[in-house]
Amino acid sequence: xxxHQSIPPAASHDATKPRAARADFQTQDDKDMLRAxxxxxxxxxxxxxxxxxxxxxxxxxxxxxxxxxxILADNLGVALAAGLIASLALxxxxxxxxxxxxxxxxxxxxxxxxxxxxxxxxxxxxxxxYEGVHVIHHKRTQYGTIEDPEYLxxxxxxxxxLPLFVIVAxxxxxxxxxxxxxxxxxxxxxxxxxxxxxxxxSSLSINPDFRRKPATGDFAKQVRFQQLGASIWAIALxxxxxxxxxxxxxxxxxxxxxxxxxxxxxxxxxxxWENEGEPMTVTAQFLDSVNVPPPGIAAEIWAPxxxxxxxxxxxxxxxxxxxxxxxxxxxxRELGDGSTYDGANHPGLFNLVGRIARSTMLSx
Length: 364
Hints:
This protein has helices at about 20, 30-40, 50-70, 75-95, 95-100, 110-120, 135, 160-165, 170-185, 190-200, 215-240, 240-245, 245-270, 280-285, 300, 310-315, 325-335, 350-360. By secondary structure, the protein is an all-alpha fold. The chain has a domain at about 25-45 and about 270-350. Helix 3 packs antiparallel against helix 4 (about 75-95), helix 4 (about 75-95) crosses helix 13 and helix 8 runs antiparallel to helix 13. The longest helix has 24 residues, at about 50-70. Mean pLDDT is about 90; it is low at about 1-20. One of its GO terms (cellular component) is membrane. Pfam families: FA_desaturase. GO terms for molecular function: oxidoreductase activity, acting on paired donors, with oxidation of a pair of donors resulting in the reduction of molecular oxygen to two molecules of water.
């Protein structure tokens, strides 16, 4: 068995000592753990089209089918059940945007285009809203700093900030319609508005201080294509009540609001959010991130497409989601309980919410 550094077993669950448990890794890495992550997973890492395509297509079909049933159903119970299924299925489909930011552009021919046509554009969250942005979150010197678009020190903020952070996600479907149907077209004739929309409202980020840099090269072409599709679709949605009434649009918005609420709740527990803006080692970033491994199955619903292994993902960002469970099993078996690796494993959603909430109380 590989020798490794360790942290006290209780450190991953004791909300009173979270920052002290990681202090040793703020300036130096657990090199044994990083070496094990590299050596034990050499045969993994190939994105398999035979898994990606069926997973995305089936999830998307179930999602759109659920929306149709919810709109057409006369029975309230049937409509609610169909809406719930649609929300969960489309949430899973949407989470493939995370995979698109990490897999090599040639790894899955046609998948990026297919996902954008079937999911990204109809949901008004095309892949450009994450590509080129999410990778900053993984940069060694930018994670957890003011330059990180996906980091806020939530555990160090006021207690009321947590429910506000989650509930505001209910407005996301309306916000993306306004963005694509109104702000983007207006930006074509009002350059300052166009610049503001790109810098502040073109990325799926949570840091209000983040400003996106201009797109260049081939990526700029992708942005134009994807944004054109999203704008046409958003305008069509706004005009749809003139032809079919408000019921279909309102039901679809409610379904998507629940999906975005669930994603925001997942985001809330994806990290411990205890960094105060200083650069962190890879190990410290790992311990500030969260795995919710088996045996529980609930995490497969609220953290789909490999996101239940979010800490492991920060160790190996390019590892495809379908290989993360096996990578976790190997590392957990090799490094064992009480190891640094074990320090990022947590029992479940409610435990994590409670921990972060308690941290906000202690930080006042």
